[in-house]
Amino acid sequence: MSKSKIDPVLAHIDANIESTTAHLFDLLRIPSVSTDPRFKSECDRAADWLVQDLNSIGFTASKRVTTGNPMVIAHGRGTGTHVLFYGHYDVQPVDPLDLWDSPPFEPVLEQGDLGPVIRARGASDDKGQLMTFVEACRSWNAVHGSLPGRISLFFEGEEESGSPSLVPFMTENAAELTADIALICDTGLLGNDTPGIVTRLRGMLGEELTITGPSKDLHSGMYGGAAINPARVLAKIISTLHDDAGHITIPEFYDGVPELSSEMAGQWDGLNFDSAGFLGQVGLSELAGEKGRTALEMIWSRPTCEVNGIWGGYTGAGFKTVLPSQASAKISFRLVGEQDPHKIRSNFRAMVRSLLPADCSVEFKSHGASAGCEMGIDSPSFEDARVALSDEWPEASAFVGCGGSIPIAGHFKNILGMDAMLIGFARDNDAIHSPNEKYDLRSFQKGIRSWARILNQIYIKE
Amino acid sequence: MSKSKIDPVLAHIDANIESTTAHLFDLLRIPSVSTDPRFKSECDRAADWLVQDLNSIGFTASKRVTTGNPMVIAHGRGTGTHVLFYGHYDVQPVDPLDLWDSPPFEPVLEQGDLGPVIRARGASDDKGQLMTFVEACRSWNAVHGSLPGRISLFFEGEEESGSPSLVPFMTENAAELTADIALICDTGLLGNDTPGIVTRLRGMLGEELTITGPSKDLHSGMYGGAAINPARVLAKIISTLHDDAGHITIPEFYDGVPELSSEMAGQWDGLNFDSAGFLGQVGLSELAGEKGRTALEMIWSRPTCEVNGIWGGYTGAGFKTVLPSQASAKISFRLVGEQDPHKIRSNFRAMVRSLLPADCSVEFKSHGASAGCEMGIDSPSFEDARVALSDEWPEASAFVGCGGSIPIAGHFKNILGMDAMLIGFARDNDAIHSPNEKYDLRSFQKGIRSWARILNQIYIKE
Fold first, then answer.
1. Cβ atoms of B424 and B185 closer than 8 Å
2. Any CB–CB contact under 8 A between A365 and chain B?
3. What contacts A42, CB < 8 A, 6 or more positions away?
4. CB contact under 8 A, B284 and A359
5. Is residue A357 a part of any domain in this protein?
6. Structural domain count of chain B
7. For residues A90-108, average pLDDT
8. Chain B within 8 Å of A242 (Cβ-Cβ)?
9. Mutation choice for A interface testing from B209, B236, B310 by most A CBs within 10 A
10. Do B48 and B26 touch, CB atoms closer than 8 A?
11. Can you give the pTM of this predicted structure?
């Protein structure tokens, strides 16, 4: 492994961080909110900005029309392992605006707990993160006159609004988009100093159920004690979904849930995850999941069944003595391994129906179903990235899990047959999707350096 | 018992029903909505209208100022049993106005399922009902030149907005208001043909609880499976409040709940209550309360614990994978016999606290507490009324219960030491509190005749 190629690139990154940050500010000033049609032209403008920028640093970039916001595709001319980097240029809405300390689309540098932070909507999610990769390419290109290898980029502008165009576009352009491995920069550090490579994501199954008893709301004086109350029925059903040990009671629910390999368990143990801090920062002191599991197992490798919303009857101020006609809940399942979301949906619905008392009916709504996703980490790029990240950060990098669901990783796997490496530099306190979003300048600078090191590790070693 | 006094009164009522109805229309045209301060002067006008009307038929009536809407008090000059008749001249708001087929304060006669109906806000609740008694007095006075006995009237104008002035006013004017028995016309017939005298009302205890787990809403990907979910905790607690037989599990809850006397049970059986129809009209087919109880027992003589509202987490359209920080419910108890609402509140709260898992806290709000109310029906007026009503209506009258809570009856008992007879002629389909409220002309006419017969039974027999 040669260090001669990377050292001047790292030096270039550090020497130019001020102008690089100013350049990011230009992108952050474009209010590319994808959930609001009024900002459609701004999304277009952000795509144009990226196309122009990429064309200036050794890529051939173009904007691709969809029925929604455009995609940006860029290809470099290098050789070797073909990597496809993914990010999204659209951002979340800014409401409530009055909770921002400065205008969300006028980025500023402020002092944070670990040094300067870039404050703006999208600073972390995902403009700042996607630009870490672009800036690594820029510096490499500036220092060496070309990109280090065969690199493509793929940016979408609808991630914050459910990516309606993504799957059709990937399907139609599969040949162009398929590479040896995908790189995704939309995740975070573990703590402040440990970079993680996410190799497993939980899937998600969303269900909404509405239980109907009486045909209309009843007066609880006239009918109370005689008529079935769907809010009580719903509570009973929800309370039946877990046993006292925290296990989910839906038949065949645990089919396809693998036990963690001892190797992976060892890596996770090595992270010395601060379970007390993880709980403490949200006011909790005890793990409430399956008995006998660690916090990381609970959130990375075990499936869940959670109530995300519940409502029925009178919920306003004061009191109304109503026996509700209906009660509803939104319930989601996080899935792992080979759990089949469609079988679980069907078994869940059958179980709810079996628990319904006389005179009650139930209606279900589906809110998405995706299986868990586990990367095959045999590709040498995974180990390359781990070594490179460990060189850059105070703590060694590790293969980790992610409790959430990042659909793009599943799409790369299912549509294009590619594994994805999810590497990101966000911090838990970045306030993504919230007022006063920020990205540490340290995340930005060390993020750029991290990608330079990863590209160096992948290509120069070859 | 003489019939000579009553027959000409009944004839006078029937002969004058057209002008009597027109007179009611005058009162119905006054929009005396007590919940809306914009109608304060209209409430005043309704009180003035009543004062003037009562002064014209043998009473000495006056308007009494309160901090809210005025009371109307009237005394006649008769002798014998002192009865105090109660009603309220205020009405519910009319929203949504666009669901009315005719303007709510422009009363009209229309055809209903049992003959003509009077359509207007307040036609049934309570202007039409209170005027049944006034018109009985008017006819008696017109025919015999004086009232039949010692009659007082007491009208309030805040019943639909929680009666804030009522208890202070009753307390301050206890001597003037105390009579031998109170008469209240704010209830309904059983079916179409059976007049009931309500001798027991259930009390009401309202509780609102909010369970807090995490200090803020959490992402169900990041924390799901590890953090406690207060919506699940709430569901578990609610499901614990009843056992499989429908009994309420709160310690000492049934202390003071009497078994129904065999005499009363016999009267209720004699009503041939249409349990299937009662359930069927709201889309139900099975009694869902305590196993082994009849429908009338469930709603008149047994206590309840019901969820009136439940909410927590994300309840809007679509889906949000949030682990809620809080979940809340409004829970009410209907109470009977000697059940102590304060003890039940305290035992309920202790039970909820005992069911809270680690890291959860609970806050309670009180929404009123009133004990059940059972009349001592030894007073001969109860039997007088039952006989009189049975003479007027196709079916025999009975002493019945009421599943709801009518606070004024408790106030008469607790503040003035008087039992109350609740007699009313409303029908289930009167749409009180709803658009297109109506009162059957038959209810109005036979209601007036009923009160004339009751007064005859009480006084002329003496």
1. yes
2. no
3. A30, A31, A32, A33
4. yes
5. yes
6. 2
7. 93
8. yes
9. B310
10. no
11. 0.86
Contact B299 A226 (CB under 8 A): yes
Q: What confidence tens digit (pLDDT) does each residue in B93-142 have?
A: 998 899 999 999 999 999 999 999 999 999 999 999 999 999 999 999 99
Minimum-distance CB partner of A315 among B278, B303, B311: B311
Same-domain status, A364 and A230? yes
d(CA B184, CA B424): 8
Give counts: helices (H), strands (E), chain A: 14, 18
Amino acid at site B238: I
- CB neighbour list of residue B178: distance below 8 Å, 6 or more residues apart: B84, B416, B417, B418
Chain A hits for B358, Cβ within 8 Å: 285-286, 288
Same domain, B130 and B247: no
ipTM of this predicted complex?
0.86
Q: Are residues A26 and A147 in the same domain?
A: yes
Which of B354, B370, B386 lies at the terminal end of a domain, its last residue?
B370
Q: Which of residues 276-295 of B touch A (CB under 8 A)?
A: 278-279, 282-290, 295
- Closest of A164, A450, A208, A453 to residue A307, by C-alpha: A208
Of the candidates A456, A373, A370, A368, the one whose C-alpha atom is nearest the C-alpha of residue A421 is: A373
Shortest alpha-carbon distance between residue A309 and chain B (Å): 4
My answer on whether A20 and A146 are in the same domain is: yes
- Average pLDDT, rounded, for chain A: 95
Q: Do B398 and B328 share a structural domain? A: no
CB contact under 8 A, B220 and A284: no
Residue B104 lies in a domain: yes
Amino acid at site A438: K
**Residue B164 at interface with chain A, using a CB cutoff of 8 Å:** no
Identify whether B77 is part of a domain.
yes
Q: Is the minimum CB–CB distance between B356 and chain A shorter than 8 Å?
A: no
Domain boundary among A326, A344, A369: A369
Asked if residue A441 is part of any domain, the answer here is yes
A309 touching chain B per CB within 8 A:
yes
Let me know whether A320 and A232 are in one domain: yes
Q: A317 at the B interface (CB within 8 A)? A: no
Tell me which residue range forms the domain holding A157. Answer: 6-201+372-460
Q: In this predicted model, what pLDDT tens digit does every residue of A432-448 receive, in sequence order? A: 988 999 999 999 999 99
